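So, who can interpret the following?
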Amino acid sequence: MFCPGRRGYDGKTKDTLNNIRDTEEFALNIVSEDFAEQMVATATDFEPDVNEFDVSGLTPEPCQEIAPPRVAEAKISYECTLNQIVPVGNEGPGGGFVIIGTIVLFHIDDDVYKDGYINIEKLRPIGRLAGNQYTRTTDKFEIIRKIKPE
């Protein structure tokens, strides 16, 4: 799942949501620091006929199970079909949606996968906080949990 917001200046829905409504398919790509600035270039409110791959310089990679492409530079991508769209907040600026999908196929680069786990240090994922603020996963700690009660 992911959560696209409405456009901040007029509250209209963005192309990502509109495309998912139309096709009921989408690719989710985990963004690594390596291409973070290119990802941000796709966040501009372009007209629907503008190809964000052309603007960003990112590479479209055909998916195997869905029509939309994934981002070739992403070390992890999910091919998804739409399960549900949940509106959140009001219908103007500040509102948004929760998009819930069913993963039909995932792609994991061998460089970030080892022994059944994702190597976060090699993946170097980023997350958006708010506005122009992003976060890294370089400050982490571990708490061991019990698998089942004793």
Remarks:
- The first strand starts at residue 25 and ends at 29.
- The mean pLDDT is 93.
